[in-house]
Write a structure and sequence with these properties.
With 403 residues, this protein is α/β, with parallel strands linked by helices. 34% of the residues lie in helices and 26% in strands. The chain has a domain of 169 residues: 3-Layer(aba) Sandwich (Carbamate kinase).
């Protein structure tokens, strides 16, 4: 991303308030009071809770296609309402807010509609207001192309907007305000024994987010790590200190496993048999990547009659992925199973301790849970399981590593 401020141009923190924080006029007044007390350099806001879903539903009355300027123009409009309402509330607090949409703040993206990525931030457009004592109130989730067309960043994109703006203006801290007290060792709705993680490395949070933890968007964590932004997750309606994300090289007294993440938005594709050549995997996954579809767990089964490829994608990408696969592999059988879920353990301690995966598989086996597919990294082991046993899997792993 271009337009990053130099270290000598550091300013105060950027605050981001999610949809639940902006969910009613009374909550917006509370947010304004919080801003008046803590005085952030800039504020990024999401649409009011439920508003984006309402707008998406209206779009789906006409089309299921999201790759159009009019789709982004519609779904990004909820943030405009939040910007205006918070600006009203801040004026009541005696502050000087400046409402800004993506075009005003110079949030330039590529032209991949409904899942755009930020290319640059216009630092000067934001900083000129900060330098004269005003507080930019900036719409999250949205951007504009070089030609000035609206784009949206996809679900959770306001987190990404906030961290990108922090990097763009030279802020060293970004506080994500939400409706939970921080990042937990597991989803407390699934595992009542879960507890708040007070400090977590960017690297671990990146894996947690990628494996289904919903507290932060994965792109926001990646940007924070890249630009050295200190991220905090706090509850808008609580004084709890929350969770702090620290640099990967900072000392921390950590557990072998930091957290257990899970995702139910999973679809398991099996494609084949298909001819097994050196280009087979590149052709299949290249076609999916061209359309912006991320593939997670991958496995292949070489059989006498050809190659069968197994992989997972987000559940929201099933229809598009299925269409692409029928085009790329017209003679292969394409099967999809959406009654699956992913459960993962994450922690940097895995790098220096042997047997972590074995303990995971044993804990799942003892709970009579069958593992369908597996993927690993240096600090993560993820398993695909039947959705019906997901809660039991999360609880078994939390008990195993964080009793």
């Amino acid at each position: 991303m271009n337009g990053i401020a130099s270290p000598s141009q550091v300013c105060g923190p950027v605050f981001k308030f999610g949809g639940t924080s902006m969910g009613s006029l009374e909550r917006i007044e509370h947010v304004a009071s919080l801003c008046a007390q803590k005085r952030p350099s800039a504020v990024v806001v999401s649409a009011m809770a439920g508003e984006t879903n309402r707008l998406v539903g209206m779009a789906q009355h006409f089309t299921n296609h999201t790759d159009s300027p009019e789709y982004d123009l519609l779904v990004a409009s909820g943030e405009q309402v939040s910007v205006a309402l918070l600006s009203f509330a801040l004026r009541q607090q005696g502050l000087r807010p400046v409402p800004m949409l993506a075009a005003h703040a110079g949030i330039v993206t590529n032209d991949l509609h409904s899942r755009a990525t930020i290319q640059s931030i216009n630092r000067d457009a934001i900083m000129r207001h900060i330098e004269c004592g005003e507080i930019p109130i900036i719409a999250g989730f949205q951007g504009v192309t070089q030609e000035g067309r609206f784009t949206s960043l996809g679900r959770g994109g306001s987190d990404t907007s906030a961290v990108a703006i922090a990097a763009g203006i030279g802020a060293r801290e970004c506080v994500i305000y939400t409706d939970v007290d921080g990042v937990y060792t597991a989803d407390p709705r699934v595992c009542p024994q879960a507890r708040i993680i007070r400090k977590i490395r960017h690297e671990e949070m990146l894996e947690m987010a990628s494996q289904g933890s919903k507290v932060l968007h994965i792109r926001s964590v990646h940007l924070a790590a890249k630009w050295g932004i200190r991220l905090f997750v706090k509850n808008t309606f609580s004084t709890d200190e929350g969770t702090e994300m620290i640099a990967d090289n900072e000392a921390i007294e950590g557990e072998l496993v930091t957290g257990v993440a899970h995702s139910i938005d999973e679809a398991w594709f099996s494609v084949g048999p298909i001819a097994h050549t050196r280009n087979t995997l590149a052709d299949v996954f290249g076609a999916l990547a061209t359309q912006g579809i991320n593939v997670d767990i991958v496995n292949q089964d070489v059989r006498p009659d050809g190659l069968v490829v197994h992989f997972t994608v987000a559940g929201t990408d099933v229809a598009q992925a299925h269409q692409i696969l029928k085009t790329v592999t017209p003679h292969a059988e394409v099967r999809v199973n959406q009654d699956v879920a992913k459960v993962s353990i994450v922690g940097v301690g895995m790098r220096v301790h042997a047997g972590v995966a074995a303990r995971m598989f044993r804990a799942l086996a003892n709970a009579n849970i069958e593992v369908r597919l597996v993927t690993t990294s240096e600090i993560k082991v993820a398993c695909l399981v039947d959705r019906s046993v997901l809660n039991a899997a999360v609880q078994a792993l939390h008990q195993e590593y964080m009793p």
